[in-house]
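Problem 12. The chain below contains 385 residues. Write out its predicted structure in token notation.
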Amino acid sequence: MVSRLCKPLKTNSFFLFGARGTGKSTLLKGYFKNSSILKIDLLDDEVFDRYLLEPQFLKKQIQSQSYDWVIIDEVQRIPKLLNTAHQLIEEKKQKFALTGSSSRKLKRGGANLLAGRAFVNSLFPLTSLELKEDFSISQAVNWGTLPKLTELTTPAEFQAYLRSYCLTYIKEEVQAEQLVRNLEPFREFLAVSAQSASKIINYSSISRDVGVEPPTVQTYFQILEETNLGFILPHFHKSIRKSQKSSPKFYFFDNGVQKALEGNLQNEYAIGTSMYGSLFEAFIIQEIYRLNEYFQKDFRLSYFATKNGLEIDLILSKGRKTFLIEIKSSIKIDALEVSKIARASENFGNIAVEPYYLSQDPNSVIIDGVKCMHWSKFIAEFSSF
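Solution.
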């Protein structure tokens, strides 16, 4: 079993949010194997109906028997259970592990989020640090790193699973939870958003392709974020308020899911192709996004582009630290590309920046003040940043 980097504190109740298939239930099963637990799986229709009709049944169970932990899977399906959980935390010091694939229904419904009584954790697809010697950059780029893929061996199996995953998302996450009123435009949006992933979002263009108004497209992107299927990368600015005025980029949480949504699973890209380069960049940004959460680094992630075409793939900023990161899939350091990030770093005025050039070249060198290294070396050192 893969040892996960996400390690919720056992001294306190907690939420564990993550997309379907990221391994939330598996993590908790191993985490509490020596504890007395009550597990409530709200994906089970019979269990769901029981607690939907009588949320207070949970209180009766815990009053009749002592448990170290109560695990409620997919708690967003019955938000009222959080009121009962709140009472039991206060009255009996009961500990809860509450999982969910979406915080949207909880937030929109004004659900009781326990006012800080439960810490919040996120779980993502597997990282290279978790997979260790079993990690394959080719597989991560082309098929993603959802835990189920470690049990499969062939591209045909990968494709079948990822297609099924996306159908399950639409059926169980979007349709069943009624996240959108009209499903057909949203289906079209999923394909268009996957095709334009990692590019600057053009809300007007997407709205024309999908046949809905731009504000609806913005709502659709929010749904993807709130169901943990992706994240927004804003344009860099020293002011958070001003950065929100510029058009952001959007990244899916996993390359395999992105390819499935755009109907592109039949293609397996090789190093040296433009699509491989785009997916490689996406994977590295996903990886850093995940580790920023796991290691609680609290970096703001953004990108930067100038009017004359200079662009920086990723910026990590926190306090006086600002890291500029250019990502290339090439197996050799490209001095011309390095010079571009060196020039781009001049746009930051009096902000002290540290520019990096990440590639698949095993050599570590400094060129024009830019630290060039293999991407895995940067990832290995990230926890110390």
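Discussion. The chain has 16 helices and 13 strands. Students who got a different answer should revisit the alignment rule from Section 12.3.
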